[in-house]
Amino acid sequence: MERTSKEILRKIDVQRKVLGMSQKEFSLKMKNGPQWLTKVKQDGREFKVNSWVKAAEVLGVNPCSLLPDDIIENLNNENIEDAIKILTKKGFRIILEESEQKKSIGDDKG
């Protein structure tokens, strides 16, 4: 598993524990099976962008706060689209999934 994905998972665990949320509760709030988070960690899967953003929403934090500290220093207060552009330019592999809700970016701004 890529270092960035590991660090995101570590920060998710810290925030999840602060909120008193079990891995099972977190997985279910992510709208996945109860063992999803455990499997992601065990299988060494890369953490996908949609999961990263959803995890931040579930935990009530800014998605950028779940990134490794060295990356956060370079992002400051960027919005999510700019953060993804910056990460991509830095050579991080960004995995995007098609959303079931096909919202356009403009829908979120209006």
Please provide a written account of the structure.
- By secondary structure, the chain is mainly α.
- It has a single domain (3-98), classed as lambda repressor-like DNA-binding domains (434 Repressor (Amino-terminal Domain), Orthogonal Bundle), CATH 1.10.260.
- It has 7 helices and no strands.
- The longest helix is centred in the N-terminal third of the chain and has 16 residues, at 3-18.
- The model is unreliable at 96-110 (pLDDT under 50).
Secondary structure blueprint with pairings:
Layout: H1 3-18, H2 23-29, H3 36-43, H4 49-59, H5 69-75, H6 80-89, H7 105-109
Name given to the CATH architecture: Orthogonal Bundle
Multimerization status: single chain
CATH C-level label: Mainly Alpha
Radius of gyration: 14 Å
Helical amount among residues, as a percent range?
55-70%
By helix and strand content, what is the structural category?
Answer: mainly alpha
The parts where pLDDT drops under 50 for at least 5 residues are 96-110
CATH superfamily: lambda repressor-like DNA-binding domains
How many domains make up the coordinates? Answer: 1
Query: Total helix count?
Result: 7
Please name the CATH topology. Answer: 434 Repressor (Amino-terminal Domain)
Strand content: under 5%
Largest beta sheet, briefly? none
